Amino acid sequence: MEKNAQQTALPSKSRFSEWYHELLASAEIMDIRYPVKGLYVWPPFGYALRNNIYSIMRELLDKDGHEEALFPLLIPESEFMKEAEHIKGFEDEVYWVTHGGVTPLDVKLALRPTSETAIYPMYKLWIRSHADMPLKLYQIVNTFRYETKHTRPLIRLREITSFKEAHTVHTDWDDAAKHVDRAVEIYQEFYRRLAIPTIVSKRPDWDKFPGADYTLAVDTLMPDGKVLQIGTAHHLADNFAKTFGITYEDPTGEQLHAHQTCYGISERSVAAVISVHGDDHGLVLPPEVAPVQVAIVPILFGDRDVNENVLKACRSLRDLLTDQGLRVRIDDGDERPGAKYYRWELRGVPVRIEIGPRDLAQNSCILVRRDTSEKRSVPIDRIPGEVRDCMNVMVTDMYHAAREGLDSRIFDCKTLDDVSERTVEGIARICWCLDVDCGREMEDITGVHILGVPVEPQNNSGQCPICGREGTSVLMARTY
Ligand code: P5A
Ligand code: ZN
Fold this sequence. Notes:
The protein is an alpha+beta fold. It has three domains: 2-277, 2-Layer Sandwich (BirA Bifunctional Protein, domain 2); 294-393, 3-Layer(aba) Sandwich (Rossmann fold); 411-477, Translation Initiation Factor IF3, CATH 3.30.110. Helix content is 35%, strand content 26%. It has helices at 16-26, 44-63, 77-80, 84-90, 116-126, 173-193, 239-244, 268-277, 304-323, 337-346, 357-361, 383-407, 416-422, 436-446, and strands at residues 67-68, 74-76, 96-100, 103-111, 135-144, 159-170, 199-202, 214-221, 227-237, 247-249, 255-257, 259-265, 294-298, 328-330, 351-355, 364-369, 375-379, 410-412, 427-432, 449-454, 462-463, 470-477. The strands form four sheets. Strands 1, 5, 6, 7, 8, 9, 12, 18, 19, 20, 21 and 22 form a twelve-stranded mixed sheet that branches. The protein has a five-stranded mixed sheet with strand order 14-13-15-16-17, with helices on both faces. The longest helix has 25 residues, at 383-407. '5'-O-(N-(L-prolyl)-sulfamoyl)adenosine binds at residues 114, 145, 147, 156-157, 160, 165, 209, 229-232, 234, 262-266, 268.
């Protein structure tokens, strides 16, 4: 393959942060030059990827009986200030709209940092009887958080452009708890479709969602050994129902407070796909969400008639694959094949097909798989089936490779020194007595976070490193 200036632009993935930023630009996922800190632009290729990913989310939620709705961006201060814990958690992060033109507003308006306080006043009006529940709505909207930690494209934004938030209402605590588990299952299925391995844990009390009873979090491990929280589900009990007056009549005629849950994901899901699967050549996209699934590269030489035949074969293959619902591009520009391969590799196109005169003479073509670079010759008439099979195998292989990568970076630790050492690379598993003071001390001493108690049972036991009492396995890691 020939070299050109572009081909050396992407740093090795071992320099993860540089690799990530350079890849977002060169693969046209995000343009980070917008002149407001923490706000970024989706160019068409990135936006197509984002939309394909969110289609899976919509499909899974709809299949589970959720309905999509849309609530306003602006929340009156009077509603926002109702739930004490919620305010405490978000007050430093809210952007306020204070004026209409030059006129000060009577009631300040918050740009939603999340929509509990926009949605629940309406739920109060909508919920009347036990027959109105469960109510399961979601919206996919932008939210604004004045983040003070280091902002990063797709990971820590001040305008979260793709906040999928679901809000459910149930008759009682147990039903809501069951639904929190269901929400986590949906997220795990979502990430399985994206070939992203996840770990689910119950966050310690000091790290739960402001106003929640408890929080379950879905995490994945990034290449630099830091954990990225890629979704959370919260049991709100009747905390918000009490402040917003969400009550219902039960079958005996009694008025009771409803119980609620909420759960959210953001474009961190896109960041995870890029970071977990990408390699030194660029993106490696799960076929289902790749904006271009098949790139056909004609190999053209001198002879006009021969070239015309090659192009004709490429076009009829494109039409055949397009008819099967695949997203296909022919790259028939003037560049040399190497430059074209480079471009489609950078963009993570799962399958590349090369057709040259010699292949055509044998009615075959070359099929190249993005994740393994495996190349093989395939008869043209077998291409549609082969492409399908290849894409199916790819998502399974990508998942297993990523799962192994994650599991091999979870380390059993006995001491806090071990924790400090191992969390340079990945996740530490250590026992903790679950006492808050011990937990906070473990975090202070190591400088890394307790993710929480994993939901999957862990079969190791040991003593709390602070107090020496018998403890439960928890995970600790550096986090984004
Ligand atoms: C659940 C949905 C909530 O806001 N209210 C409605 C609940 N939960 S959360 O944990 O605060 O956010 C949900 C997920 O959104 C991602 N996230 C972010 N992504 C990008 N930039 C940010 N500034 C940001 N803040 C939160 C996380 O994945 C989080 O789990
Ligand atoms: Zn302890």
